[in-house]
Design brief:
Length: 89
């Protein structure tokens, strides 16, 4: 019975560190994806005349892909906050 409690404490510590590292990673990816999506939107629309057609097409495609990465990283951030007992926002 006591061994079971020790294992539960150990598992809680492991889960806590997992959620902390998940939160750090999700925040990092979220920040990078915001920067990437802003750059791709600027290349796609505001400064399109300065870039070749191939670069503009790549920027339009990357806007869609980076938006998906942004959404996934936000969901992972919410999961990590919930796992750590923090307010999910």
């Amino acid at each position: 019975m006591n061994t079971l409690k020790i294992n539960n404490v150990s598992n809680n510590v492991k889960l806590g560190s997992f959620f902390e590292s998940l939160l750090f990673t999700a925040n990092t990816v979220l920040g990078l994806s915001v920067i990437c999506i802003v750059v791709s939107i600027l290349i796609s629309y505001s400064y399109a005349e300065y870039f070749s057609m191939q670069v503009q097409i790549s920027a339009h495609i990357s806007t869609i892909l980076v938006a998906a990465i942004l959404k996934v990283s936000y969901v992972l951030r919410c999961v990590a906050q919930y796992g750590l007992g923090q307010e999910v926002r």
